[in-house]
Design a protein that fits this description.
The complex is a heterodimer.
Chain A: H1 8-25, H2 28-33, H3 39-55, E1 63-66, H4 72-77, E2 81-83, H5 85-94, H6 98-107, H7 116-127, E3 140-144, H8 150-162, E4 166-169, H9 181-202, H10 208-230, H11 242-253, H12 258-279
Parallel strand pairs in A: 1-2, 1-3, 3-4
Chain B: H1 2-7, E1 12-17, H2 21-24, H3 27-36, E2 41-46, H4 54-67
Parallel strand pairs in B: 1-2
Classes of the chains: A mainly alpha, B alpha+beta.
Chain lengths: 281, 68
């Protein structure tokens, strides 16, 4: 309610109340860390560019469809355009077309009880409809079971439909903080066996120097991301639950690219500053 | 397909347990293959903890009558 009275005390009170109201509109991060670091628009820009590049990828690159957790570093080093059907399905969800696409899959006989990510993906596979313009056909499929076993059945359908080779990386569950020696060796052997197929599809040999560079950038991005997530050990938490979900997009699909490191470095700095200012850490 | 051909099956009943992904992902292609070979099929979905519903019995009976 507007204050109709005049006088210095009342004016000052109204000014304080108005400032408090202004502050209340800002998020916790903005209050303690100043102007936003424009991270969300940057993520949006990177993701938009990724899908635009993917649309025309076939003119000069091979395309690999992968699950989250797949060894994208090997594919990046071989210059594959990497597509994540899971991320695509999430985009379909936010673009409100997932139901329409899932219906396409259900009409083709896929049960409503199977994973909705898979049904959305099959909908695009069968109808060609997608909110990202065009999804390039896969030349190679790489599924990693670190997230769920469903991806194996899902990618087998894709492999039969597109006639593309399927590489499966089976990852044992890590019960403790560190994977056991034999678990690491088991996965390492699978990665070594996967390389010749990847090279054959890419039509070029794996360049060790390029792989090291991609690995270095990937590790840097991962470490920065872990730093960002570690901030939330603090109470009250500096980052809302939703923010990591969409900021993680770059780490998921552009791990091994320099742009991802460039994105997370200010994230980490910004959220560190937020905690230092507010809670004097 | 080989099993259907060698056994001389006139029809195939897919009796799928709900949420059983290893079976459900292959179901559409299996049914398409059978359809192409002229073998009718029916997909019946059940839950492991459910007793046999009369609706299920009716569907199986109808399918039997169709292929008989």
């Amino acid at each position: 309610m507007e204050c109709q009275c005049s006088g210095p005390v009342i004016s000052a009170t109204a000014a304080v109340a108005s400032r408090a109201k202004g502050r209340a509109r800002l998020g916790l991060e903005e209050q303690v860390a100043g102007a936003p670091a424009q991270i969300s628009p940057r993520v949006k820009e990177l993701v938009a560019r990724h899908w635009l590049e993917a649309r025309y990828a076939h003119s000069h690159r091979k395309v690999a469809w992968v699950t989250s957790g797949a060894p994208v570093e090997l594919l990046k080093a071989l210059d594959f355009c990497v597509i994540y059907p899971e991320n695509h399905a999430a985009i379909c969800g936010t673009a409100r077309v997932a139901v329409e696409l899932a219906t396409e899959a259900e009409n083709a006989g896929y049960s409503r009880d199977i994973c909705s990510y898979a049904r959305t993906d099959f909908g695009t596979m069968l109808s060609g409809k997608t909110p990202v313009g065009k999804l390039p056909r896969p030349d190679l499929l790489v599924a990693c079971t670190n997230i769920c076993q469903t991806v194996l059945f899902w990618y087998r359908v894709l492999a039969r439909h597109y006639g593309a080779p399927l590489i499966l990386i089976d990852t044992p569950f890590v019960y403790y903080a560190q994977a056991s020696e034999h678990a690491i060796e088991f996965v390492q052997r699978q990665l070594e066996q996967a390389v010749p197929t990847m090279e054959q599809v890419a039509g070029r040999p794996l360049d060790e120097r390029r792989l090291k560079e991609v690995g270095r950038l990937s590790r840097m991005a991962s470490q920065l991301w872990m730093e960002v997530m570690e901030r939330n050990r603090h109470r009250p938490a500096a980052i809302s639950a939703f923010r990591p979900v969409h900021t993680n997009g770059a780490h998921c699909r552009m791990r091994g690219d320099a742009v991802t490191v460039d994105l997370y470095a200010p994230c980490s700095k910004r959220w560190t500053r937020a905690l230092r200012v507010e809670w004097a850490l | 397909m080989r099993l259907a051909e060698t056994s001389g099956a006139k029809g195939v009943i897919f009796y799928d347990v709900k949420f059983c992904e290893p079976e459900l992902y292959d179901l559409p292609e299996l049914r398409q293959g059978l359809q192409a070979a002229g073998i009718p099929s029916v997909a019946i979905e059940v839950d492991v903890s459910d007793p046999l519903a009369h609706q299920t019995l009716t569907r199986i009976e109808a399918f039997m009558e169709m292929i008989a």
